[in-house]
Amino acid sequence: MDFFTQQERSRRATRVLVVMFLLAVTLIVLAVTLVVAFILRMYMDPYGPQSVINGGSFAAWIVENGTLLAGVAALTALFISLASLYRTATLSRGGGQVARMLGATEVTGEGSDPLRRRLLNVVEEMAIASGIPVPEIFVLEEEQGINAFAAGLTPADAAIAVTRGALEKLSRAELQGVVAHEFSHILNGDMRLNQRLMGLSFGILILALMGRWLLYSMRFTRRSRSGGGLAAAAGVGLAFLLIGYIGLFFGRLIKAGVSRQREMLADASAVQFTRDSSALASALKKIGGFTSKLTARNSEEIAHMLFSRGSHAFRGWFATHPPLDERIQALDPSFTPGDYTKVDATFSVAADSGSAALVHSLASGSGTVSEANILATAGQSAPHEVAKDLRLAIPDELYHAAHSRESSLLLILALAIGDEERIRVRQDSLLEQQLGSARNALCGKLRNELENLDDKLKLPLLELAMPALKQRPAEQLEFLSTLLKRLTDINTNERLFDYVLLRLLESYLWDLPNSGMKPPKARRSLSPNTALVALLRCVAAYGHDNSTAALAAFRSGIASINKRKSRVPEPRFEPLADARNLGDLDGALARLAVLKPRVRARVLAAVLACIRHDHHITLAEHELFRGIAATLGCPVPPAAAIDLDV
Predict the structure, then answer these.
(1) Which residue in the list 124, 125, 136, 182 is annotated as catalytic?
(2) 125 is catalytic
(3) Is residue 444 within a helix (H) or strand (E), and if so which, with residue range?
(4) Between the CA of residue 460 and those of 83, 101, 390, 423, 484, what are the distances in Å?
(5) Alpha-carbon distance 175 to 274, whole Å?
(6) pLDDT tens column, 367-381
(7) What's the Rg (C-alpha) of the chain?
């Protein structure tokens, strides 16, 4: 199943989820209203509660007090909605918020723990090879079970958390399989769906928490003559507790229905990422022989997000994950149910840093994807051998700069410094003015390091630097974006690399909850067809040196999407410089970005057909395609993972 089909399924699942949530809320509101009505009827009756018990007309009383009960229902619905909105707003701060809620600690690359370093390496390799920003990485240090989860609303604000048990009990290959499983949730849209599910289910659960609080607080209330009031409060508390747990029943059922199938799909995607089904199967066998249980107080809230079941309290229809044996057999058909790998609680694997690996794939092209399959790689990762080599090919000074809160910003600016002396002098003057002498000198030093770096590895530095950039306040991120644009404007040669660098950075910052930056609004007056023509015109112009070849490439792109053979007005390509209008390209992308996933897939297919018209793809064309795809919400692996004809 391709990336865009997964996105469509995620959108449909979200709509179903909202309908199920509204149904559950309706039933809960009805139950609360009936409980309140019964209690009010008992204590408003002039003959006392006994008359109600002996057969007073309850239905007639409800009709008579319909306005009051409608208010109770409205307040209950409002309370549940506000609770859901509160939890959703809390979670919208990024996937790291979910990890911190469970007491996880962030992995920054500092420290001497080799197991945390190994986790950092694995996650970075997977992110770079997938063409997405490196997620925040967390470890649940107090959890000894083998488990993990991914959280966030977009790939740019994603976080991956693993338990200490997973670090200590899994080999590198097994850990890579687990991380690949979580990456599939990030890329397929499951993560966003799971986080919305958390927000909605909290509103359902809030009544149980209220009921528990009421009953608990009554333990400290002194008995008095007004025992009827205490009895009423106890009744309300008990009723809320029961109704809340009925809500938990619905919430668990919704989570289970949404989660089970997507877990099997994530297992299959993980095998595509790693090209190794045995490693993931081995990790699941270790869970069977040990445990995946979590002890954190809030673990039930994220049960549907975990790699494996965090509790054994729910089974059958209420289980958020398929049976363990079923998952293992899908990966290893020879597996005998129950034949798990026994793991001692004191067992810990030896960490391997991977520093001794040979950087061979980049030079030989082994393991890379052919250029014909670029669009098919959307939402996928390059083979793990290539992923590892990509990370190891980055020089230490640039690698450490990408991880530094201070130097990461300077590294991104250094990427935009031009090659010509006259341009570099003007850019240096601007940086001196904006950064000061010391920071400008460090930026220049990083630029010198970049001159010796393979051009294919320059854009992956941006993905590598994103966790460090996320730590900066919104005004500094906006400063970076503005200064980067000013640097690229100085370069009158209009390098496509500069444009793509800026587009990728802005697309990542738009998705960060703390950046304060929003994507430009689409011009509704611009039709999708007109936007498509403008997009293909610019792509064709940048890919060819003469207007005749550019027009032929444009026609190839249109033919791939225009199956009905309807007449499409052809734009002018003379002079070619006028067709290379990046402002028109930005406007077109803003309009096309709001289309449905399946339509955006056809747009990208047309762009690729336009690029491949001359039967090869240059590095600049591939990077332009990456920038366009990222703006349209589609991650594509970097050029170093693609076998380009350059």
Answers:
(1) 182
(2) no
(3) helix 437-450
(4) 40, 30, 9, 24, 17
(5) 11
(6) 444 444 566 666 566
(7) 29
Within 13 Å and on the Cβ side, how many CA atoms surround 353? 8
506 and 608 both lie in a single domain: no
What's the token pair of residue 379? Answer: 């939402």
Q: Is residue 541 part of a domain?
A: yes
Residue 540's closest CA among 578, 485, 483, 593?
A: 578
Letter for the amino acid at 172?
R
Q: Which residues pair with 105 in a beta bridge?
A: 139
Return the structure tokens found at 14: 């979200």
Bond prior to 322 in cis (omega within 30° of 0): no
Question: Domain range spanning residue 63?
Answer: 3-93+196-247
**594 and 445 in one domain?**
no
Structurally, the chain folds into a number of domains equal to 3
The size of the chain, in residues, is 646
Q: For residues 3 and 546, give the distance between their C-alpha atoms in angstroms, rounded to a whole number.
A: 35
How far, in Å, CA of 420 to CA of 343, rounded?
A: 60
Residues paired with 163 in a beta bridge: 140
Q: Which residue has the tokens 């080799």?
A: 114
- Rounded to 5 degrees, what are φ and ψ at 468? -70, -40
Rounded mean pLDDT for each run of 10 residues along the chain, 646 residues in total: 62 71 81 80 59 60 83 86 83 84 87 90 90 93 93 89 95 93 85 78 74 64 52 65 72 70 81 85 93 82 81 63 89 91 74 42 43 60 71 90 92 92 92 94 94 90 90 88 91 82 88 72 83 94 92 92 76 90 91 88 91 88 91 82 57
> Which tokens sit at 353?
């840093």
User: How is residue 630 written in tokens?
Assistant: 């990222």
Q: How far apart are CA 152 and CA 92, in angstroms?
A: 8
* 306 vs 318: CA distance, rounded Å: 15
